[in-house]
Amino acid sequence: MNPTLTTATAARVLQQIRHDHRTLGLMLVMPCVLLGLLAWIYQNTPVFDSIGAPLLGIFPFLTMFLVTSIATLRERQSGTLERLLAMPLGKGDMVGGYALAFGLLATVQAVVASGFALLVLGLDVAGAAWLLLLVAVVDALLGTALGLFLSAFAATEFQAVQFLPAFVLPQFLLCGLLVPRDQLPTVLQWVSDVLPLSYAVDAMQTITSDANGTAQVLGDVAVVLGFVVALIGLGAATLRRRTP
Amino acid sequence: MAIRIEALRVVRNERIVIPGLDLTVPRGELVGLLGPSGCGKSTLMRSIVGVQRVTGGTVEVFGEPAGSPALRNRIGYLTQQPSVYQDLTVIENLRYFAKVIGVPRKDLDEEVARLLGLVDLADHASSRAGSLSGGQLSRVSLAAALVGAPELLVLDEPTVGLDPVLRRDLWSIFRGLARSGVTLLVSSHVMDEATRCDRLLLMRAGAMLADDTLHGVLDATGAADAEQAFLTLVDRATERQPADRAAGNQGAAGQSSAQGGGPA
């Protein structure tokens, strides 16, 4: 990896997004709209306060997953990936550049969504606001890393979009939001234990209910970051300069 | 020697695309790779650039195995489809590719201006690539292949879809580059582009039907132009070895003599 090439690639990806105002708008506004809708549905009940934070982690995860998958698939299909890999660009520069660019976007998205939830919707959590923000950013990074890794296995847009129900929705079902993880059937508990989103939601649930859970939350954050690093590494490792 | 290929064999999806091919290209030569679409031109070019998974044989560029890291800023590669970012402007595209090839930051503006002039796109520098016409877009892609003054240019159908004036201009650019010592391998399925090259490779079904100057090819076949010569060579090859292609026995022609010089 070469820092100049990685940042040049990240800058180029951001430039592409900047030209696409609608995508940028959707990325920043949609999580807020969904959270607003949620708060409205559950008005005058304590439900929003209990599931608001976990969903604040899940919405950015979803959007970043989709945007990243499609962006890297486009890179593959347009021939630009082949051109770049014939040039002095390292595989790490490619994947790292995307991770950096989308990580930055993810941070902005998480700040906007968390700020909106806390300040406008009056989301009330026991833990600190900075912790909420940190977990939201890390969750969005997880979406990016998963998208970077999985898009290598998608040959078409149809397949890439189908990876959402295939690899993301099962994580959502098992993450502990519908049924607490310790009440899941044993086998499903094991599966839940190896899925990254479970730790993301664990962290958000701790923030929701426990004012003294900072250490526990940071532990979960470390696990999610471990997944992020591993997925980005796998994404770079599975990138092939030579194709059939 | 710029390119040296021995017994190259490429199998894609269980189909033999190149059964066994030898080729050498000295430095500074402008070589035309002509043949119908699907004959293996792109696969051969991808093998030289080092992005094709090959089944057997050796491919060397400037004495190094194709695809070596040391070669990556010495080869300019133009893919058949215009491979640029359609959502970026022409300048943004070229600046990025120039950065990747290693052009120093202070020289970026100058390099991009040079490239824009070369492909005559200075008027569209700030247009989004996706808003350009097909011909303009392929010129952006060509400019991206020329960044950083590579020593070998592998250009896959650079003139397809361009008007005659522009094609003439591009060929004069190629000629100028060859004169300055750059080696060029340029593919085309338009046979009349043969007249522009130092040397012709006529390719069909993954093998070289001929490897000679245009003069040599015309003399050997008695044809009036490259297209006629190609057809004559195809006819001779089919007569001589009707069903032998898949067996992979048909190697490349020897240097400077058209293969299939006599009827079977």
Task: Describe the 3D structure.
The complex is a heterodimer of chains A (244) and B (264). In chain A, 78% of the residues lie in helices and 0% in strands. Chain A has ten helices and no strands. Chain A has helices spanning 3-19, 21-41, 47-77, 80-85, 91-120, 129-150, 157-174, 186-193, 196-209, 214-237. Helices cover 31% and strands 23% of the residues of chain B. Chain B has helices at 41-49, 90-101, 108-118, 134-145, 164-179, 214-221, 226-240, and strands spanning 3-12, 15-25, 30-34, 56-61, 64-65, 75-78, 152-155, 183-188, 199-204, 207-212. Chain B has a six-stranded mixed sheet with strand order 6-7-8-3-9-10, with helices on both faces. A four-stranded antiparallel sheet of chain B has the order 2-1-4-5, covered by helices on one side. In chain B, a hairpin with a 2-residue loop joins β9 and β10.
Instruction: Describe the global form of chain A.
Output: globular
Task: Figure out the total of helices of chain A.
Answer: 10
Could you give the order of the helices and strands of chain B? EEEHEEEHHHEHEEEHH
Distance between the termini of chain A: 25 Å
Number of strands of chain A: 0
Overall average residue pLDDT of chain B: 87
Helix share bin of chain B:
25-40%
Structural class of chain A: mainly alpha
Strand order of the largest sheet of chain B: 6-7-8-3-9-10
Q: What oligomeric state is this? A: heterodimer
